[in-house]
């Protein structure tokens, strides 16, 4: 399976977001992971629609938006218009998740649904056929720099098994604590999109960090 690396801009220097984003592209990343937090769904606040719009001019990388917000239905249109490519909502957010997925697709964007560590894989099965991506959180969402939860590996495998059973080529993304050591575990379980914040942005040589993940 091809591996896609999606550096999380959350770990970058927010005073230099544009060049940080462009640097990810130069480093060989496949996607740019953008963590949107509202201080309500998670106990942290990051960035919003105007920032995504401004960043859109700085890199050609597809934008992988991770919406950690309570009311995704209210903001999907704005994020779509701001230049998102993938929009991932949380199954635990308010409102109907399938409605959010339909709304994302109606804007011509790729749709993802994310599950927090306590949410079972089966939650996404009723609308799995409509998804471009399932995001299995491997930490509690809210902050970068946490340790990978190995007990999420069976959940990744369960989503991959169900996709195989249905003949779906859905991307399975993992987010949280991804390093050259933990990536192979998630890959073996069936993940193919790897978010990496600290691992990429704390590296002196980001191209080497991205390559290390691709080859791990
Ligand atoms: C956490 C965010 C992650 C975070 C990952 O809620 O969704 O994308 O930036 O950071 P690392 O790779 O440092 O765990
Ligand atoms: Zn994320």
Name the CATH class. Answer: Alpha Beta
What gap, in angstroms, lies between the N and C termini? 13 Å
The helix tally amounts to 8
Strand content: 15-25%
Task: Give average pLDDT, whole number.
Answer: 98
Can you describe this structure?
By secondary structure, the protein is α/β, with parallel strands linked by helices. The protein has a single domain (4-215), classed as Aldolase class I (TIM Barrel), CATH 3.20.20. 33% of the residues lie in helices and 19% in strands. It contains eight helices and eight strands. It has an eight-stranded parallel beta sheet. Strand 4, helix 4 (97-106) and strand 5 form a beta-alpha-beta unit. Helix 3 packs parallel to helix 4 and helix 5 (153-166) packs parallel to helix 6. It is globular and about 40 Å long. The two termini are 13 Å apart. Residues 8, 10-11, 33, 35, 66, 139, 141-146, 175-178, 195-199 line the site of D-xylitol-5-phosphate (DX5).
């Amino acid at each position: 399976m091809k591996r896609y690396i999606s550096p999380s801009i959350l770990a970058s220097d927010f005073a230099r977001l544009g060049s940080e984003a462009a640097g990810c592209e130069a480093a060989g990343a496949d996607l740019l992971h953008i963590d949107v937090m509202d201080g309500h769904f998670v106990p942290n606040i990051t960035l919003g629609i105007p920032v995504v719009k401004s960043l859109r001019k700085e890199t050609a990388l597809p934008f992988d938006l991770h919406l950690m917000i309570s009311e995704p239905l209210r903001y999907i249109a704005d994020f779509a218009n701001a230049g998102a490519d993938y929009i991932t909502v949380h199954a635990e957010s308010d409102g109907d998740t399938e409605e959010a997925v339909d709304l994302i697709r109606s804007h011509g964007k790729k749709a993802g649904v994310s599950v927090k560590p306590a949410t079972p894989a089966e939650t996404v099965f009723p609308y799995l056929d409509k998804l471009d991506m399932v995001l299995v959180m491997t930490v509690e969402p809210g902050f970068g720099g946490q340790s990978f939860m190995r007990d999420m590996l069976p959940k990744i495998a369960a989503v991959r098994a169900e996709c195989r059973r249905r003949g779906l080529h859905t991307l399975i993304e993992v987010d949280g604590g991804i390093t050259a050591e933990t990536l192979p575990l998630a890959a073996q379980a069936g993940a193919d999109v790897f978010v990496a914040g600290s691992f990429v942005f704390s590296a002196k040589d980001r191209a080497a960090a991205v390559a290390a993940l691709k080859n791990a």
